[in-house]
Amino acid sequence: MTQTHGFRSGVNRSGRLIGVLAIVALLGAACGGGSDGTAGASDLTGELVISGSSTVEPITVAVAEKFNASNPNVDMSISGPGTSDGFEVFCNGETVIQDASRPIDEEEIAKCKDNGVEFIELHIATDGLSVITSTENDFIECVNYADIWALIGPESEGFEQWSDANALAEKYGALGVPYPGEQLVITGPGEESGTFDSFVELTLETFVEEQGLKEYEEEVSPRPDYQASANDNVIIEGISGTPSSLGWVGYAFYKSNESTVKALEVDGGDGCVAPTEETIASFDYPISRPLYIYVDANRADDPEVSAFVDYYLSDEGIASATEVGYVAIPPESLEETRATWEERTTGTLGEG
To answer: Which of 247, 264, 286 is the endpoint of a domain?
Structure first.
């Protein structure tokens, strides 16, 4: 792992260095003095091991850089192997904080319970899953769930050109038909990613429910022959490198690369909507989603854990979400998050 001013910016299982650009960009601001979440905390010691979502990871890296500037003796390790892989180690008690781009699921809740790990769920930002293509693609601007199903869903396995999906797209009422005879190269997150899970839930599962596709009610996944990666930068490279590409990432990764990739508008039933800070914050963009951190309640009152989460939820800390390209939660939601933390309320809104 790479040592950076007292905290280790983790490397995921593929060996990918994370957070370096965010750290460099924030270093000057971080060294400018104390903050409202760390007053009197300069003598703190201890270790914080954080893992999980590669989507949430840039937020946590940015918070950690600021926090560590005032608390250099707290050793911090941050990695982003994906939400599912992160919950695996979190529910084993191996990490103290879990970054997550989806809520914890029932199997993960059960595993945490079996291992005696209680958790505090904290909503810290909002993301809009961005359906992207190359900036060179000029033949499609908006997709609905039928387009996504016809191009990325399980029935599209083996389609090598956009036009291969025409019959399926017409059957379901896709917006973009007829598609041209251009190469169809799809790159997106793999199954270890919360972005994968959220995309399936918000697009494919919604489509299955709307269409009454009983054969997919139990389980549905994207076509198995797409190019999957746990590294968002690899996805961006794949999309930008092929003019007729298609894929999806979190909003911040699209925004930081909009010179080479473009986001398609999405019609969830009320017309085409582009992902913007305003449409994501209002959830008018149909594939918006909340982002979380989970804290091991058994460690919540450890001085270094308490101080770090206090700082994360402070005005200065929570501003990191917008600084790295995500969307701030409304003030009332932030107050609810802060109250959940202050009261050490365990469990999840999705539980039960």
So the answer is: 286
